[in-house]
Amino acid sequence: MAWHKTHKENSKDKILTSAAMLFTQGGFEQVSIDDVMKNAQLTRGAFYSHFRSKSDLYAQAIAKAAQNAQQRRPESSKADMALYAQYYLSKQHRDDDLAQGCPLAFLVSDITQQDEQVRRAYTETLQRFIAQAEQSIETREQTLQSVVMMIGGLAISRALNDTDLSNEILAACQQGVFSCSK
Q: Is residue 144 part of a domain?
């Protein structure tokens, strides 16, 4: 019996969704192909009909993670960077390991260890984030300041074991983005 036309596309999407979630939670080294495939409820053999390597999967998963994270963005924040920063730099976003986190913040230290394909995917994802932010912030400099405060603030707040300091960083970065987006 032949597979339905969309079967391969659906399988690839399941793998990418699984990889996006697992990689943003654990990074490249901590997640195996077997982990991704088990989470996607597919066999390891299916992996090789979609990806050349784990690195290829990782690069494509960065884009998928950004897409998934973007879908979680509150509708009210689409045209207002200060509102988006309020969501992005929230305790909920920092602490929710079950949902799709932002690959820009959650993988920032992992990316420097990766190959050119992965770094290109990360750079393209960052460029799309900057382009979205430019729609609601006056200058390029303020846009870059806001984007870096958001990504860096979230990444650092996740790394800390001092909840009070972590919360202070989130609040300070929210205020910084608010100041840039007036």
A: yes
Q: What are 135's two structure tokens?
A: 């729609």
How many angstroms from the chain centroid is the CA of residue 182? 26
Number of domains within the chain: 1
Length of the chain: 182
Do 62 and 22 touch, CB atoms closer than 8 A? no
Beta strands in 50-147 (DSSP E): none
Q: What is the pLDDT of residues 43-85, one digit of tens each?
A: 888 898 899 999 999 999 999 999 888 887 777 666 788 888 9
Tell me the CA distances in angstroms from 30 to 26, 36, 74, 123, one per residue in order.
5, 11, 30, 22
pTM flag (> 0.90)? no
Query: Helix (H, G, I), strand (E, B), or coil: what is residue 43?
Result: coil
- Give domain status of residue 1, yes or no: no
* Domain encompassing residue 68: 7-180
C-alpha 128/C-alpha 54 separation (Å) is 24
Structure tokens at 12: 């690839």
Residue 42 pLDDT greater than 60, yes or no? yes
The CATH number given to whatever domain includes residue 39 is 1.10.357.10
Angle 179-180-181 (CA atoms, 0-180°, nearest 5)? 95
